[in-house]
Design a protein that fits this description.
Mean pLDDT: 96
Distance between the termini: 28 Å
Strand content: 5-15%
Order of helices and strands: EHHHHEHEHEHEEHEHE
Strand order of the largest sheet: 7-6-5-4-3-2-1-8
Oligomer: single chain
Shape: globular
Length: 344
């Protein structure tokens, strides 16, 4: 079988200022921590005015030319992070998110399908936010309000059911094969919040998706691979499937995010670490997971990257070889607009 070899479309639908600093400034968001804060504070809550600017960002950050270049490089997969507010009727008064993103998601998915890509849609930001002080949630909140909230989780289920229906009925989404139900919940944390996620949210989200597929008459082999963070993420349980039924465990895919925690400034040690970094586990063998985010960031060591190209080629190859012991990998990320972030 063909290994997944792909890239994330980071900052396309959820702008992360650290990796798109000039873009963020150009969008009128200087000083804002995340999209919610920019529209609320920098735009004075004027969602319509902000949406015009965001639509220009969506139009230009990832283009048809980008998709063609990815294909030319031999990549076969894209993972698209999206926020729950893309379903605009879920957004309530006092919540500040741009409008119009869904049309651009359809456009990108259609381009990718034409180029033969496998597509993963990732609910990168859930209602109420799943981790505090994180721009990838779209709302830089000091508290994660998603957990143990019927109101917020119902909105997540509504989003997942809605996007599932579109995936199976709209030709633009014909190559979407996986749907991730939450990105990066609280890392390496087993507490009341994350236990609730494992014991309640996971099963309920899966049921919503499978129920929509049943109503639509989707063939078993054409069902979405519902994607969860893997056991190594350590959120809520050592086994993220511990509260799922046998039926709910079918057609799952596990997502491993591995930003190599290398403290050594010795190139040989860095390469040895990568070669020994096992990502498969007894619980989740290689054919059940992908490494859905990784990079070549070394926290300032061995930069500028262009001066150490041979080392970086070896390090990329070492990680790639290890990650292909799983179903494959999706690099973070396709595009940044800062020269000092070339190893992302």
């Amino acid at each position: 079988t063909t290994k997944i070899r792909g890239v994330n479309l980071g900052s396309q639908f959820i702008v992360e200022p650290w990796m798109a600093a000039q873009e963020w400034i150009d969008m009128g968001c200087y000083g804002a921590k995340a999209e919610f804060q920019c529209i609320k504070d920098n735009y004075g809550g004027d969602v319509a005015a902000a949406s015009v600017v965001w639509q220009e960002h969506w139009r230009t950050w990832i283009t048809h030319s980008d998709i063609k270049t990815m294909a030319r490089y031999g990549l076969n997969t894209i993972r698209i992070p999206v926020g729950w507010w893309m379903r605009e009727d879920l957004v309530q008064s006092g919540e500040y998110f741009p409008k119009g993103g869904f049309a651009y998601l359809k456009k990108i998915c259609n381009w990718a399908a034409e180029a033969g890509f496998y597509i993963i849609i990732d609910l990168h930001a859930v209602p109420g936010t799943q981790d505090a002080d994180q721009p990838f949630t779209g709302n830089y909140s000091d508290t994660a309000y998603f957990y143990q909230s019927d109101y917020q989780s119902e909105r997540a289920y509504d989003f997942l059911g809605w996007i599932t229906a579109y995936i199976h009925t709209s030709n633009a989404f014909r190559n979407v094969g996986a749907l991730e139900i939450i990105n990066e919940p609280k890392y390496n944390t087993i507490d009341g919040d994350t236990k609730w996620m494992v014991e309640h949210y996971y099963g309920s989200a899966i049921t919503v998706i499978r129920s929509v597929e049943a109503v639509l008459g989707v063939a078993p082999s054409a069902r979405l691979h519902i994607t969860l963070m893997d056991d190594l993420w350590g959120s809520g349980s050592d086994d993220p499937t511990s509260s799922l039924s046998a039926e709910q465990k079918e057609f799952l895919l596990f997502d491993d995010h591995n930003y190599e925690p290398v403290s050594s400034d010795n190139q040989t040690e860095i390469l040895k670490y990568a070669c020994a970094d096992e990502r498969t586990t007894t619980l989740e063998p290689g054919n059940t997971k992908i490494v859905g985010e990784w990079s070549m960031n070394l926290n300032g060591a061995w930069e500028p990257e262009q001066n150490y190209s041979s080392f970086y080629q070896q390090w990329f190859a070492a990680q790639q070889e290890k990650y292909e012991e799983t179903n494959g990998w999706v690099y973070w990320t396709w595009k940044t607009n800062q020269l000092d972030l070339t190893n992302w």
